[in-house]
Amino acid sequence: MFVNQFLFLAAVLFCIGVYGVVARKNAVLMLMSTELILNSVNINLLAFAMRNGSTDGHTFALYIIAVAAAEVGVGLGLVLLVYRNKKSISVDELSEMRG
Amino acid sequence: MVAQNVGFWVIAVMMVVAALRVVTTNNVVHAALWLVAVLAGASGQYILLAAEFVAITQVLVYIGAVMVLFLFGTMLTRARIGFDSDLNNSYKRLGIPVAVVMMGAMGLALIRSFGDEKLPVSDNIVSTQRVSDQIFGPYLLPFWALSFVLLAAIIGAIVLARKD
What we know:
The complex is a heterodimer.
Chain A: H1 3-23, H2 27-52, H3 56-86
Chain B: H1 2-24, H2 28-48, H3 52-76, H4 95-114, H5 128-135, H6 140-161
């Protein structure tokens, strides 16, 4: 197996995730695209861990999974709050801070 | 080696197709289910990379917990269960050149840096014991910080979502 096949898979997933963050208007779907990005980073870390024969990448991958879980919890809390105030979770309607 | 390569390509194609469906489908619940396919595929790739503990954690945390959170978020915000044509920005086509340019830059960098370097074939798999020795040894301080992050996230989510 080549190193590059894993790195390319991660790069493709990262770009799809970036496209999702740009194209989506629904806040829940933007959070899902962020999960795609975080997973691609995890694949990269584990590929490099195997390439270098070290365990550090595994530790970082576990930490990233924990941070992603925290991010989803807070993110969905924010989405619920936005929904309660706006009756909509379209991020286009959040324009109070526009100058 | 051949079996691993076949497994890699089958899972990789499945993951890319499912990821494309996540960002293009017009149904929030379908997007969540396609995301399950991507996450399960990622866990398969972790096993191919000899990281069985991370793979199992991925299944437990992502597919078990995070997806439930997403489905609850969908339910509580009363997103339309079913077809919804109002999920994308009006300028969503702008995302395509952004993603393509980024992919080109990353692909060029990857080919130049790694070319056709092969992964080493090692028979000593990284065991869960070595991972835990790392977490509770040199990486203990980040582990503590992470537990505070989780605590803060739990309290923050409760404070944000509470009705008062």
